[in-house]
Amino acid sequence: MEYITYEAEGQIGIITINRPKALNALNSTVLDELDKTLDGVDLESIRCLILTGAGEKSFVAGADIGEMSSLTKAEGEAFGKKGNDVFRKIETFPIPVIAAVNGFALGGGCEISMSCDIRICSENAVFGQPEAGLGITPGFGGTQRLARIVGTGKAKEMIYGARNIKAEEAYRIGLVNNVYPADELMAAAKKLATTIARNAPIAVRNCKRAINEGMQVDMDQAIAIEEKLFGDCFESHDQREGMAAFLEKRKVEAFLNK
After folding, report:
1. Catalytic one among 7, 33, 44, 131?
2. Edge to edge, what strands does the sheet with 4-9 contain?
3. What gap in Å lies between CA 106 and CA 164, rounded to an integer?
4. SS3 165
5. pLDDT, tens digit, 9 for 90 and up, residues 198-249
6. Any catalytic annotation for residue 111?
7. What distance lies between CA 194 and its chain's CA centroid?
8. How crowded is residue 242: how many other Cβ atoms within 10 Å of its Cβ?
9. Which candidate in 2, 7, 111, 248 is catalytic?
10. Cα dihedral 63, 65, 67, 69 sign
11. What is the pLDDT of the chain when averaged over all its residues?
């Protein structure tokens, strides 16, 4: 891998977009390597992922404008599909993904953060969809996810105006869950990931599916999705151990992902 690093720390996997000289901008190679990295995650042992960017200035400054500037209509659509396919893989990845946003998260950077389950950021983080100022639309899901996360009015204001927002406003409008000093961000991400990883993996995965799939349908269909995933947890070792520990007033010995 040229631009992606991956390391496992116990039950947590950490993916770092490592192109700091370009502020971790996304080109085709980065997207391909990220896709392969996701495919290589050991889902038997890893229970939560953290996605971040190398360096202190930028999470992901956006898609690579140098690569995009000469694209034809067909090539532009294909590049959008490449990004969307990878980001959708993150969004639907079996285990939770936390975006630790350190610095700029613009364009594709804002979009990849929004494909993650949870976003936390550093105090110097900046979010935005500046594409309209470059003569294009957001192409990696920005028009869809931003509106779903912060509401259509705020999303349209940011996208139409190509307006960036700082960490404090991102927190106020619900784009991020928490804001931390830059030197505390990764520790906070690992603490949150560890908290998630301690819980029953089958249950956490089913919770992710229930939320994601349920948000796309009406309430009657959503409840049916939840019922199925709720029932799917039963007869597992983890369900039996979790409930036995509660009834016996003891700590869970181990959740085994089975």
Report:
1. 131
2. 4-9, 12-17, 48-53, 97-101, 118-122, 178-180
3. 8
4. strand
5. 999 999 999 999 999 999 999 999 999 999 999 999 999 999 999 999 999 9
6. yes
7. 16
8. 17
9. 111
10. positive
11. 96
